[in-house]
TrEMBL record:
Biased composition (Low complexity): 196-214
Transmembrane residue ranges: 6-28
Keywords (A to Z) from UniProt: Membrane, Transmembrane, Transmembrane helix
Organism this protein belongs to: Mytilinidion resinicola
UniProt record, GO biological process: post-translational protein targeting to membrane, translocation
Protein name stated in the entry: Translocation protein
Cellular component GO terms held in the UniProt record: Sec62/Sec63 complex
Residues covered by region (Disordered): 186-241
Length: 241
């Protein structure tokens, strides 16, 4: 006869274990989802998307015209341009963030925020493509190319503005430097003009040179004189006779 009571105990144990594991897994997923939802977003508010949605769903008031398709397309293109900026930031940060995560330099919370930002940008791209195709067929395939060109032009204009600002600052510094150099040169010239009259008005320094020259000539005469028995002494006696 089969001992049902002995078989029921291990089955009951297995059932309790499976049930407790399922409850724990469910609670863990809910807790993780709530924690992920409470994390700060990776990007700030998407202002261009909010503007487009506001214009798209704006109800025309009495006497006011409806928002034209041209304005909506321009707003959608600006929205796509902002998406391009965010895609570039995501691509630049992904490799560095994954490396830091492997080293343990950053926590899982930051990685969860990044993954959520990736999912949000993917949904945003799909939404922009569908909205562009709603305006005109196949526009969704080229809208991001146009947005990329706009983003590059904006970046170039920003760089040109920065260079112009630096050029004005450097020009101001150079003008100040030239003024300092000119004042230094004028000061040296004034000092030279003041020292020259002082030398001209002091005759003692000028009279010292002839005296020294005269003394030198006497010394030369003494050195030239030779004894009477020398050949020069004979020539001197002949001259006397």
């Amino acid at each position: 006869m089969v001992d049902w009571i002995g078989l029921a105990i291990p089955f009951a144990y297995i059932g309790i274990l499976v049930g407790s594991l399922s409850v724990f897994s469910s609670l863990y997923r809910k807790r993780k989802a709530s924690k992920s939802a409470s994390l700060a977003p990776w990007f700030g508010q998407h202002l261009q998307r909010d503007i487009y949605l506001t214009l798209l769903h704006q109800e025309p008031e009495a006497g006011s015209p409806k928002v034209s398709d041209g304005h909506l397309k321009a707003a959608l293109l600006r929205r796509a341009t902002e998406d391009i900026h965010r895609i570039v930031q995501i691509r630049n940060a992904k490799q560095a963030l994954s490396t830091l995560l492997q080293r343990g330099s950053v926590g899982d919370d930051l990685w969860q925020r990044f993954q959520r930002a990736e999912k949000e940008i993917e949904e945003e791209l799909r939404d922009v493509v569908s909205e562009a195709n709603a305006f005109s067929p196949n526009w969704g395939q080229t809208i991001f190319q146009s947005a990329s060109e706009m983003a590059q032009n904006a970046q170039i204009r920003t760089r040109i503005t920065e260079i112009q600002g630096q050029a004005s600052a450097e020009k101001e510094w150079w003008e100040k430097r030239k003024a300092d150099i000119s004042s230094g040169l004028m000061k040296e010239l004034d000092e030279e003009k003041t020292t020259k009259p002082a030398l001209a008005s002091n005759p003692s320094s000028n009279s010292a040179k002839p005296a020294a020259a005269k003394i030198g000539s006497d010394d030369d005469a003494v050195l030239v004189d030779s004894p009477a028995g020398g050949p020069k002494g004979k020539n001197k006696k002949k001259g006397k006779h």
